[in-house]
Structures are given as C-alpha cells and as structure tokens.
Amino acid sequence: MVSRRAQKLSLILVGVVLLGSCATTGDRAPSVERMYVINCGENRVKDLARWSAADAGKSVVFSNHCYLIRHARGWMLWDTGNSDAFAAMPDGMSILGGMIVQIMRKPLATSLKEIGVAPADIRHLAMSHLHGDHSGNANLFTAATLYMQGPEYDAAFGPEPQKFGFQIANYGKLRGNHAVKLTGDHDVFGDGSVVIKSAPGHTVGHQVLFVRLAQTGARLWINHDPEQSRSIPKAPAFVQ
Fold first, then answer.
1. 73: helix, coil or strand?
2. What is the residue-level pLDDT of the chain in tens, covering all 240 positions?
3. 4-229: what CATH class?
4. Most buried of the four, 61, 170, 176, 229, by CB within 10 Å?
C-alpha cells in the first residue's frame, strides 16, 4: 500500500504522472501473458515548488518506468523513458535551468535485450504523452503501430511541437509509422485486456493504460511515485 506521503505527492503531481492500472475482472481469460516493468531512468528535482508551494525547498527523485506487455498477438510497449543517450552521462542531463536532472543508468535497448526482445519485435507502441521522459527512445520503434490521441499526434508532428514541450528529435522517426489516431478510449487488442484511456490535461492528448492480468485484485500504479516504485518487481522479473 502506498504511504500517506506518497498519496499526497501523487495527488500533487497528478498532472505529470503516468497512471497505469493492472486488474482482473470478468469471466474471459486474459490474453496478456505477462508484463515487465522496466526501469527507464529517474528524474531528480531540486525543488518541488514548481508543483506544490507547500513543498517548496524539498527535493525528490521521481521514478520513471516503461511497461512491456506480452500479449498473445504480439509485444506492446507503453512509454520509452529517458533517452538512452543519458546513460553515457554520469551526472545526467540537466533541463529547465537545472530544475530537473534526467538520469538513465541502463539503456532501454539493453533492458529489452536482456528480456530477449529487439526493438523491431515491438508491434504496438503507445506513450502516455510526449514529454522527454516518456518519449526519449521512441525512435527505436519504427516497426510498431503507434497509438496516440489525435490532438497529441497533431501537436507532435505539427509546425511547432516545442510549444507543447515536445522534442521532435526524440520521436521524429515515427512519422512514417502506421498510426492509429485515437478520439478517446481504445481497446488495443479487442479483448478488453489492454485499454488506452483518454486523460487530457497534462498534455493535449495525455492518456493512461488499463491492463488485465491473470492475478486477482486491482492496483493503481503511478509512474513517478518513488515509494511505490520500490515495491514493484522490475525486469527481468515480471507480473502475470
């Protein structure tokens, strides 16, 4: 269970977190065979005042995950994390005038290889939104079908993506991907096991993910919650 402090932090940061659910309900056997939670970097924040005046002067290290889903109809990746290029920077990449330092200890490409998956094996790709800590390695996945809310897609590939806080260098190669431009919630595989849900606000096309697994119970996973992150098994371990 997430501590009260983590719950408070999660509410404060609801605009910038990835919300992921894994749940099981209903009678149909799920088609998701397993899900890997991959450590895709961390974001060190020196002062929480940008998000919460009550926490001014406090620092935090936000967790950052990618989610690899093995479905009977192919591999799906949700989010691509901080850029693998940061792995060569021991002190990380400083952004926003030093307000945030983005760290990447192990490249996503390496983590995938350890699981036995190559970027070309990813057939389905979706991101919660296109800020750099969620789209940092998107260019690796040019063979995938891309699922993105229409407003996010239009902003990302429009004339001024930087106005939305997007860095087209992270994802520009996806322009040629087969894209499914969403207009709301979308059942990726048509069996209710992986459902993208529209949640605009943090960006114009922000979205969240619902995953149905074989295990019982339901949990809400918040991507940037460092306390909750410590309790989640990380790849090469997986959840079923």
1. coil
2. 333 333 333 322 322 222 333 333 445 556 899 999 999 999 999 998 887 889 898 999 999 999 999 999 999 999 999 999 999 999 999 998 888 999 999 999 999 999 999 999 999 999 999 999 999 999 999 999 999 999 999 999 999 999 999 999 999 999 999 999 999 999 999 999 999 999 999 999 999 999 999 886 788 999 999 999 999 999 999 998
3. alpha beta
4. 170
Q: How far apart are CA 166 and CA 145, in angstroms?
A: 20
Amino acid (1-letter code) at residue 240: Q
Assess contact for 111 and 38: CB atoms under 8 A.
yes
CA-nearest of 101, 165, 103, 172 to 138 is: 172
Task: For residue 90, say if its preceding peptide bond is cis, omega within 30 degrees of 0.
Answer: no
Buried b (16+ CB within 10 A) or exposed e, 128-161: bbbbbbbbbbbbbbbebbbbbbbbbbebbbeeeb
Inter-residue contact 82 to 64 (CB < 8 Å): yes
Write down the residue that tokens 């207009």 correspond to: 183
Instruction: For residue 223, give every residue at least 6 positions away whose Cβ sits within 8 Å of its Cβ, in sequence order, or none.
Output: 17, 18, 19, 20, 63, 64, 65, 79, 128
